[in-house]
Amino acid sequence: MYSLSTPLLDVKGIGPQIATKLATIQLVTVKDFLLWLPLRYEDRSHLVTIQELKLNELVTLKGKVINSSNFYRGRRSIQNATVVDETGKLKLMWFNSPSLASRLVKDETYLISGKLNDRGMMVQPVVENLRDDTIHTNRLIPLYSAMPAIKQGTLRRILKHILDFLTPPSDIVYQLLEPAKLPDLGTALTQLHFPDTTEMIVTARERLALEELLSLMDKSKAIKQEWIDQGTAPTIAQPTGRQPTEPTNSSKTAQLTQVTLPFELTKAQVRVIGEVLQDLRQTIPMNRLLLGDVGSGKTVVAGVAAWEMIRAGHSVALIVPTRILADQHLATLEKLFPNMPRQLVITSPKKKTFTLSEQPTLYIGTHAVINRLSQIKPGLIIYDEQHRFGVTQRSYSGEEVNRSETSPKKSPHILTMSATPIPRSLMLTIFSHLSLSVIDELPQGRLPIKTWVVPQTKRASSLAWIDEQLGPVLPPAPTTDVPLSSQTPASNQALIVCPFIDPSRIEALENIAAVTQTHTEIQAAFPNRRVALLHGRLTKARQKEVTDQVYERSIDILVTTPIVEVGVDLPAAGIIVIEAADRFGLASLHQLRGRVGRAGQQAYCLVFSASQQPAAFDRLTKFSQITNGQALAELDLENRGAGDIFGTQQHGFDQLRFASWTNLELITLARTTFEKLHQLSPELAKWQPLFDMRQLATETTPLAN
Ligand code: ADP
Ligand code: MG
To answer: Distance between alpha carbon 507 and the CA centroid of its chain, in Å?
Structure first.
């Protein structure tokens, strides 16, 4: 008998050689192997007689072999056989399968799956010995993606063997479910591989989806407990005076911080600042996710939190995905909080050393900050635009903080900011280790960005329109010598964004080729305009130079990869063109669109697409009509296959193989089941999460130490 934890090496039919190969794709135990799921199923369940055979129809029949032969033609071999049933006679033929011919025994009856061809025979049919529990014929047949060292047929045989000898896993969850709602675990695993009906595939998958969601909830709960147990966080002062948790909205002063802001905070900002500061007064480390549309004003929230922490005597790390963003935050926060000590931390080949400030300081930077966390010992870590952080960077950060030996009992507070809209109820249902704050309104007076989908045929005329919008042509920029500030500033600017071609989102060479080509084309189309090129393969110095020029408006048109997506503030830019927009998910498009109109001017987004697919056009049209990021994210979710969803990766959703976070009904069932599990505390010890939610640990652990 096997259990889910039996090593594959102990399974009959898997020798050391195969086991080693399987281990390279992380298949080590029976459980791993059983969760190697069919890509699809082929319906070979239709049983017919020879007389009933129809051209090209995939069927199974029972046929008695009356003869078989094998002969060679050069290096190739051909096998023939004739079978009969009570209704007729059929010829079968295979290529290069000599062992098959020798297996066929005259006068024996076999199950044969295949299609009748126009010459009245079956070529390459599948043959199986006659019996009840077939695995290759006469049923829905699982087809798997290629696996090293094991052929499809063998794979099915081994899986069947395992399932036949599997001790059913203990299944407390099944007892908590309404009768007959979903199958038990053993049945689900069997049905996934050898389903009786297509309906059974669906319920089996749902049953595993439920296990997955329970595993995710369990992990989330464990993370929370672990980090509450592990240390205390530094706190800010308790509020004094009147209701400082809710800074009065009529005032421009965020009371606690005693800073005067150049604008009035929105109600949502006030509320969220209150929520964050409330957390920072507790010794339980905060792990709060701050969601807010692009331009909703998250930076000032981060600033207030940082300033409070610093005034309480603790340093703060603000970690951003790009150097450009680091510079920009530095400038912005300098304006808003002139007295806040701050320091830029970047990697530079020249500047290897890092000097720690004497006083509590806000350290702003990219992953260079992460490398310094053990020195900085921040009381608060803020991640901005978190969806852009790679897995490695973020898990690395955990290690770094853990290495801090001098204050092993201190855990920092974590604030993670993202423009990724994620349905609130969903987050709270699944993740108990995260608190959530949402800025759900934009500062007053923002005009919605007018968005048009531009087909290929209108490309030229829309470029002409852009030229008009950019206003009078300014004298060409002197290339050298003249300081930027003395050049005539552009009154309007256009951003032209080319997609990342490589989905890994690093600046692959083909991206550079595409963006460079567009740059050449645009420069030719706008001979009198100052056109610049920006992408991640330029030197950091050049990138900074270009963004400075755009910022100082000595550039009219910036052609760029989505590097600008990450929250770069270009207040003068009023037009954004998105090339090959069908390649972006709706949430990404929305983020890009948010790059323009940030000074409050009427802004425009032109969505270019040469795609001929109606579905792509449809999706882009929806994008042009919907201005709300949350709504767009929901749409992205519905068309999950089409769009990419930010925020799924770092929340561990993309490791879900069965569950979809659009299936709210199942998520609700998972929640109630999870709660029931916890009420049965003695039995709970028996419940083991089926899935290992590794990613949730590395991705959203609040770097506790
Ligand atoms: P995001 O949420 O995308 O990070 P930012 O924090 O960069 O947004 O804010 C976008 C712009 O709006 C900035 O120029 C910022 O100074 C400004 N801003 C923030 N809050 C307000 C407000 N309450 N009223 C007016 N402008 C604001
Ligand atoms: Mg931002």
So the answer is: 18
